[in-house]
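Input sequence (123 aa), recorded before submission:
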Amino acid sequence: MRSNELPRQKNVQQQNLQVENRIRSEAVHWRENKIPAALQEVGERKGVDWSAVIVVDLDIDFPGMPQLFGLLVTAEERFIRFAIHTDDAHQTVESVDEWIDVTNQQNLRAANETYHLPQLKNR
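Predicted structure, token format:
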């Protein structure tokens, strides 16, 4: 590529693959590493089977936000958005700002593979 040429934008399939790889990476990370105890506790109180959960996104200690927030998919294929205030070690729940089923807000049609979730495809 010449220095004055702009990089080509990714097509939809390439963008979807990039999203899928990010989700897969996040899911694998949280399968291999311990979920913060406070999140695990809240999930268990809500009936979550952690052995079957996919953590799509988990942000920890992001400035201006609750200590734990993100998105997960349950064994029942429900998308849950959460925001939890914890102690500094993420062991103790101080409050739960949000634990909301947002499944109906997700576009899961086959034609739109934005949430091209590996576990849903491979079941």
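Checked by second reader. The chain has one domain: 12-121.
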